[in-house]
Design brief:
Number of helices: 5
CATH class of the largest domain: Alpha Beta
Strand content: 25-35%
Structural class: alpha+beta
Order of helices and strands: EEHHEEEEHEHEEEEEEEEH
Oligomer: single chain
Number of strands: 15
Length: about 270
């Protein structure tokens, strides 16, 4: 899907900020920047939300993960949609979230543009309904309300008035009931075979996860007899990395490490 360019021309709150941005599909190389943005925008408790139970171990719906980039290419916004079912044997739908914008860029129209882009893409791909947990006042502008979620529930604690839905096809949620369950699009598991992930959009790393970290002496071997030291974590887990295209400088080694850890985290 081609990206769409935007420029905020009438928001005084955005004055003095780089308000020009473009929305594109997320790439594997965006993972580190996306997670860092979510931490800044939503804080460390974001992964305790009930919505996370529906996302954990899953990939976003095909073609429905988007990022906003500023004029200098920095990732300043993110939104992803996930496949769910309306009850164990219910109809399919989408769960939207998290939606996040770089705190310094709030008020520049990035969140609204991401929402409209995501809704339009979901409709074009033939999806019938989108659900989310969020501020009713904010999401009402995009057509979301709690009118059709009274017989539905999230799989964990949530505020009912914040459980909202938008029908992309009229009547799609008529009669829907039950607790939302994750869709079938599971994250790919790492095994002994190599899996490739884009690194900065140009390089690739082959990743093989294994339990091989010894307390106080953990490391990652890099092609070309280079070595990166990593701090042992509580779970004593290591990730083996092989560089597919030549030797890398120190900064790119760190990028390879970040990509490997992100892949490993995604599939746990």
């Amino acid at each position: 899907m081609l990206g769409h360019a935007f420029k905020d021309a009438g928001n005084p709150a955005a004055a003095g900020r780089a308000a020009a941005f473009i929305i594109t599909e997320e790439t594997p190389g965006d993972a580190g920047a996306r997670e860092a943005l979510l931490d800044r925008a939503m804080g460390p408790k974001r992964k305790r939300k009930s919505s996370e139970r529906l996302r954990r171990g899953r990939r976003p719906a095909q073609g429905l993960a988007f990022v906003a980039r500023s004029a200098d290419g920095a990732l300043v916004g993110t939104v992803r949609l996930w496949e769910v079912r309306l009850g164990a044997a219910g109809a399919p739908a989408l769960l939207l979230g998290p939606l996040a914008v770089e705190p310094a860029m709030k008020g520049a129209g990035i969140g609204s543009a991401l929402m409209r882009h995501a809704i339009g893409a979901a409709r074009q791909l033939g999806h019938r309904a989108i659900l989310l947990v969020g501020d009713a006042g904010y999401y009402a502008r995009f057509g979301f309300s709690a009118c059709k979620t009274g017989s539905l529930a999230m799989p964990g604690p949530y505020e009912r008035e914040r459980f909202l839905a938008l029908e992309l096809v009229e009547g799609a949620l008529d009669g829907a009931h039950g607790v939302l369950v994750p869709g079938a699009r599971r994250a790919e598991k790492l095994g002994r075979s190599d899996h490739l992930a884009q690194l900065h959009g140009q390089r690739h790393v082959a990743v093989d996860a294994q339990l091989a970290l010894h307390e106080g002496r953990g490391g990652i071997e890099i092609a070309g007899d280079q070595r990166l030291q990593i701090v042992p974590g509580k779970r004593d887990r290591a990730v083996g990395v092989a560089i597919a295209h030549g030797d890398l400088g120190a900064g790119q080694q760190q990028g390879a490490l970040g990509a490997a850890v992100e892949l490993h985290r995604t599939v746990e």
